[in-house]
Write a structure and sequence with these properties.
CATH superfamily of the largest domain in chain A: Baseplate protein-like domain - beta roll fold
Distance between the termini of chain A: 27 Å
Number of strands of chain B: 44
Distance between the termini of chain B: 44 Å
Order of helices and strands of chain A: EEEEEEEEHEEHE
Structural class of chain A: mainly beta
Largest interface: A-B, 87 and 75 residues
CATH architecture of the largest domain in chain A: Roll
CATH class of the largest domain in chain A: Mainly Beta
Number of helices of chain A: 2
Structural class of chain B: mainly beta
Oligomer: heterodimer
Shape of chain B: elongated
Helix content of chain A: 10-25%
CATH topology of the largest domain in chain A: Phage tail proteins - horseshoe like beta roll fold
Mean pLDDT of chain B: 78
Chain lengths: 176, 570
């Protein structure tokens, strides 16, 4: 029997679990064409007081069989009032979206550098206190003879590097 | 201007407005309104299964009413969003049941919108004394129904902790007999203030509309009554203007010894065991700034909870030291919804409780809009807060959400080795498996800024013929990088790919881009290696399943449009 749990993290945190009988469907998707993982779930507010905490920006962790399989935040909610209850559709974006929050400068140029070095330098330069890279080595990847980033998101920069060296990237769970 | 909120409850037919929580029956009792304004959005709930009854707010002097009708066992909660009652300072008002609900218990709330001061709140009290004590002061709480026999001569019993700062003004005193007389003064932390009024024995009503008193959160406030006649009753009304727009205060307390868990109505004065009635908050409302001033033997937990006693996540204060102390929680927030009753809950941690006084803040939110979509703003703000517009004011609906400070980034090479095998016995669903030349590229040209490189795969060309592909990317400025990119494209696309999707029981240890082995000999696939291009975990009442797309993504026009849209935005 599969167990699952959705943890909602705001000023007040709470769990949604199967015994609540408030959620009938959870989808978690990861695609090679998407920069970040997505998740969605439905929620019927039977206690009349939880839906207020399912708001855009609140963190969401989803566990399946006690293993965390999704960590991100709510990006969209849709509320409807059906049969005397508030029903919600909640869409979430995974943590890897964090690299979409930062832009490079114009004409940010690297010459004869390994892609791992470039990744670390981009993170140190544009997201120094937010995204850590202890698992990345400056010798990772392929040698890039010259590459220029011109006011693009870090995510787009990493995607370009990945096209050249075949690597992949993601942001792991907080507290790793 | 924004409104404030007031609540009340009664247990008997004909219960007056001011005497919240006590089982008085006198229909002559009333509240005196200290400000001009309107009463609206009357909400009421009944917890009895008695026959149909109605409940009205009545301005006795203005001869206006507004309320709800048809409360009964299958319609225990109702709201009147259309009718309004005008009130003027000095008017006497009450809540009046009608119909056959004589044994029903009611709870209600309504909005007061002052004509004079933004967010002004009306706080009404009712006090009666039975013993002639000319020189002995009596004390009264500023909200609710009081009796001098219940601790009325002990000031601490009637003090209430202020949950927020603001200004008191417009003190009104109204007696029901011409021969009643009394001097009333507002007290803060046990000291007289300038807000005072004396009713002589030949008049009904007096008011102090000149003096104002500012208080801070945590201050203890109450009335002191002196120069009382032998037996009398007095209605007291005062205006409170919070410093924070939109806040209404709710005050209560009890002085009855308890050594076991018990409950009390939130806006009541002294008695326990009012859990079956509770307090009705507006639809929607936010409870916060919870202050408790308690005298405990060892320790005790105090909660605001629903009358079911089991709802968690609501406001909670723990008193961990013996004796009298003030504990506050100014950060927690609880959102309540329509039709539910809420109570003050006490759970002793050893010994008991001599006394507990409390105060908290209620903020009403907008009338509910049940269909709405909120899309995330992709900016990099650290703190997100959502707002709903509520008439003239803006109130916060969502909670302050701080983004985490550190996210671990991973950058890794995809392993070429197969990570797991799916056999026929594992398959719960399988799409058609397609193999075509749609993505075949064996003659690749990469054109960069002043560089151009062409790379070919002769083996592929010999087998399938030439499939040319040209990529133009001005960001490529060197031959080496152009060769690197062309080589990646050849590696990925120089041979036809099989693609499809397969559903298996839920599988967690998989990742996009990694390889797996598919062994389906009955359809001609024997230990072939594929790349995962997408996976989806689906949990429903039927179970947990994982669907893997391999080889290449099926054509999805919605996805293609989304990708194009994103690229245009970038």
């Amino acid at each position: 029997m599969t167990t699952w749990k959705i943890t909602v993290k705001g000023t007040i945190s709470f769990d949604i679990v199967p015994s609540d009988k408030t959620t009938e469907k959870i989808d978690i998707t990861s695609s090679i064409q998407q920069k970040f993982q997505t998740a969605s779930f439905d929620y019927t507010d039977k206690n009349k007081n939880r839906y207020s905490f399912l708001v855009v920006g609140n963190y969401i962790d989803i566990y399946i069989d006690n293993e965390i399989v999704f960590e991100g935040f709510i990006s969209q909610t849709q509320k409807s009032y059906v049969g005397g209850a508030i029903k919600m559709a909640v869409n979430c974006i995974g943590n890897t979206f964090e690299v979409e929050r930062y832009l490079t400068d114009a004409n940010k140029t690297y010459t004869n550098k390994k892609s791992g070095y470039i990744v670390k330098d981009l993170l140190d330069t544009y997201a120094p206190s937010t995204i850590t890279h202890t698992s990345v080595s400056s010798t990772d990847g392929a040698t890039i003879t010259s590459i220029v980033f011109n006011e693009i998101t870090l995510g787009s920069a990493f995607q370009r590097l990945a096209e050249l060296d075949g690597y992949r990237y993601y942001i792991g769970n907080r507290g790793e | 201007m924004a409104h404030s909120i007031s609540t009340g409850a009664s247990i008997n037919y004909g219960y007056p407005f001011a005497a919240m929580g006590h089982d008085r029956v006198s229909i002559s009792s009333y509240s005196v309104i200290p400000d001009d304004g309107t009463i609206s959005f009357f909400e009421a709930s009944v917890n009895s299964t008695a026959s149909t009854c109605d409940l009205y707010f009545e301005n006795v002097d203005g001869a206006e009413t507004a309320g709800v009708t048809g409360l009964h066992s299958t319609a225990q909660y109702k709201q009147n969003t259309s009718d309004t009652v005008s009130v003027s300072a000095g008017d006497r008002c009450r809540v009046v049941p009608a119909g056959s609900g004589s044994s029903s218990t009611f709870m209600w709330n309504y909005r007061f919108q002052s004509s004079n001061t933004n967010c002004a709140q009306v706080l009404c009290a009712y006090h009666r004394w039975r013993i002639l004590w000319w020189m002995t002061p009596h004390y009264a709480a500023i909200l609710g129904d009081m009796d001098s026999e219940i601790g009325g001569t002990s000031e601490v019993n009637m003090q209430r902790p202020m949950p927020t700062s603001g200004t008191f003004k417009n003190l009104y005193a109204d007696t029901d007999q011409l021969d009643d007389y009394a001097t009333v003064v507002l007290r803060v932390n046990g000291s007289d203030t300038a807000l005072t009024v004396t009713v002589q024995n030949d008049e009904y009503q007096k008011a102090d509309t000149t003096n104002e008193v500012h208080v801070d959160a945590g201050d203890l406030v109450n009335y002191k009554l002196t120069n009382l006649c032998s037996r009398g009753e007095i209605a007291l009304g005062i205006t409170f203007v919070p410093d924070t727009s939109g806040e209404s205060i709710m005050l209560g307390g009890t002085t009855e010894w308890r050594s076991y868990a018990d409950g009390n109505q939130l806006d009541n004065v002294y008695e326990w065991d009012w859990v079956d009635t509770g307090t009705l908050f507006p639809n929607l409302a936010r409870l916060q700034k919870f202050y408790t001033y308690a005298n405990v033997v060892n320790s005790a937990d105090f909660y605001i909870t629903k009358t079911d006693y089991v709802t968690t996540g609501m406001l909670h204060n723990a008193h961990t030291s013996a004796g009298q102390s003030l504990v506050s929680d100014t950060s927690s927030i609880y959102f309540c919804d329509s039709g539910d009753g809420y109570v003050f809950r006490f759970v002793p941690g050893g010994g008991g409780v001599y006394q507990v006084l409390w105060g908290f803040v209620v903020v009403t939110l907008s009338p509910q809009t049940f269909t709405e979509t909120v899309v995330c703003n992709d900016d990099s703000s650290v703190v997100q807060e959502l707002y709903r517009t509520l008439e003239e004011t803006i109130v916060s609906l969502a909670l302050m959400v701080k983004r985490a400070t550190e996210f671990p980034f991973h950058y890794f090479e995809v392993l070429d080795a197969s990570q797991f095998t799916i056999n026929e016995s594992d398959v719960l669903g399988l799409s058609s498996i397609t193999e075509d030349d749609s993505s075949l590229r064996n003659h690749v040209t990469v054109v960069g800024s002043s560089v151009s490189v062409t790379t070919t795969d002769s083996v592929s060309i010999n087998e399938y013929g030439t499939y040319t592909y040209k990529l133009t990317d001005d960001n490529i400025t060197t031959t080496a990088d152009a060769e690197l990119l062309a080589g990646r494209i050849l590696t990925e696309y120089s041979y036809p790919k099989k693609r499809g999707s397969i559903t298996i029981n839920g599988k967690l240890d998989i990742d996009v881009a990694e390889q797996f082995t598919l062994n389906l000999p009955n359809i001609g696939i024997t230990n072939e290696k594929f790349q995962i291009v997408q996976y989806a975990h689906n949990i429903t009442n039927a179970g947990f399943y994982t669907t893997i797309q391999f080889g290449a993504l099926d054509y999805d026009i919605a996805r293609e449009i989304a990708v194009l849209t994103r690229e245009v935005r970038e």
